[in-house]
Design brief:
There is one protein chain. It is built from 15 helices and 13 strands. By secondary structure, it is α/β, with parallel strands linked by helices. It has 2 domains: 198 residues, 3-Layer(aba) Sandwich (Rossmann fold); 86 residues, formyl-coa transferase, domain 3 (2-Layer Sandwich), CATH 3.30.1540. The strands form 4 sheets. Strands 3-2-1-4-5-6 form a 6-stranded parallel β-sheet, sandwiched between helices. α8 crosses α9 and α9 packs across α10. The longest helix has 24 residues. The chain is elongated and about 80 Å long. It starts with 10 loop residues before the first strand and ends in an 11-residue tail after the last strand.
Length: 359
């Protein structure tokens, strides 16, 4: 299978570190762009010294040319400006104002390179003066945007998502915006400044809830492990042996199939459920959940997964990440992409999609 290389010939100058910015330019590099990553001498990107070390750095930066440049020196600034003069895209992932102080802000670069696509990636964006100098990390922005208060149970403490979800989404959003700007420039010949913030990425991740809050002025209720549909059979349930099964029986038809697997009658379904359009609703949601939870504790999570899959009910045993990636690779569903960098090889899930070319 031939890798997609639609960005071949695109020259990207990358002033980024840690996750969000490097992930954006990683996408561009993997799609064929020529990415030059600028790092400070004597250590470079802090990810080089992370707990996973070189492998973690390679996962975000494979395919890029890394170049140590001292922006505090005249020679270093001249070198960076020369690269900016000839690149197609410049990505700035430093705190707003840092590159400006070195003569590499948007206005300065645009004066040298009028067609530049200049992407600023930061915690709070560059357009709103009172916010732009605020420092940000993933868990801090989860707190600021309300994401931590969507997770967890009503009345409980805030719960952070267990991985840097906003950092990653910010990188993907920046890569998407850059490719859109490249396409636009082919049509208009004009460059553009793109301003990508972590809080903006957070609102995209929470999009349906964000829209609801903006329209009503009210925050959605915290629902713990319940599914988005609100169906009484869309939740995580404890199974025999201490495992958990996630069920997504959202429609009356799916709940009907669930009842068949459980050995419950159609008459019981008619008594338990409120018939109507849309997602399923129970006449007494708590009583429904209690009887379902009791039934699901009679078999293991794997047994329920097998039975429910066979019946056409969306369900999954709760796994660890390593369990899932191991199973997916063994099944041939996940084909690792091996990245090479500085003598290190790291297995990755690729860019998140697979393609085929027409015969």
């Amino acid at each position: 299978m031939t890798a997609m290389q639609p960005l071949t010939g695109l020259r990207v100058l990358d002033f980024s570190h840690v996750i969000a910015g490097p992930f954006a330019t990683f996408y561009l590099a993997q799609l064929g762009a020529e990415v030059t990553k600028i790092e400070k001498p004597g250590g470079g990107d802090v990810m080089r010294g992370s707990a996973q070390g070189a492998a973690q750095f390679a996962a975000f930066n494979a395919g890029k040319q890394c170049l140590a440049v001292d922006l505090h020196s005249e020679a270093g600034r001249a070198q960076a400006l020369a690269l900016a003069r000839t690149c197609d895209v410049l990505l700035d992932n430093f705190r707003p104002g840092v590159l400006e102080r070195h003569g590499l802000g948007f206005e300065a670069v645009r004066a040298l390179n009028p067609q530049i696509i200049y992407c600023s990636v930061s915690g709070y964006g560059t357009q709103h003066a009172p916010w732009k100098t605020r420092g940000a990390y993933d868990h801090v922005v989860q707190a600021a945007t309300g994401m931590a208060m969507l997770a967890g149970e009503p009345g409980g403490p805030p719960v952070k998502t267990g991985f840097p979800v906003i950092d990653v989404m910010t990188g993907v959003l920046a890569a998407f915006a850059i490719t859109a700007a490249v396409q636009e420039r082919q049509r208009t010949g004009q460059g553009r400044h793109i301003d990508v913030s972590m809080w903006g990425a957070a609102l995209q991740l929470m999009y349906p809830f964000t829209v609801g809050a903006m329209g009503s002025g009210q925050s959605p209720e915290r629902v713990g492990n319940k599914g988005y549909s609100g169906s009484p059979a869309a939740e995580y349930f404890e199974a025999a042996g201490g495992g958990y099964i996630a069920i997504g029986a959202n429609t009356p038809q799916q709940i009907g199939k669930l009842y068949e697997v459980l050995g419950w009658s159609a008459a019981q379904a008619e008594a338990d459920l409120v018939r109507g359009p849309g997602f399923a609703r129970a006449r007494d949601p708590q009583a429904f959940r209690d009887q379902l939870a009791a039934a699901l504790r009679t078999r293991t999570a794997q047994e329920w997964e097998d039975r429910l899959h066979a019946a056409g009910v969306p369900a999954a045993r709760v796994r660890t990440l390593s369990e899932f990636t191991g199973e997916a690779q063994a099944a041939g569903a996940l084909l690792p992409t091996l990245l090479q960098m500085a003598g290190h090889t790291v297995a990755t899930p690729g860019l998140g999609w697979r393609t085929r070319t027409a015969p």
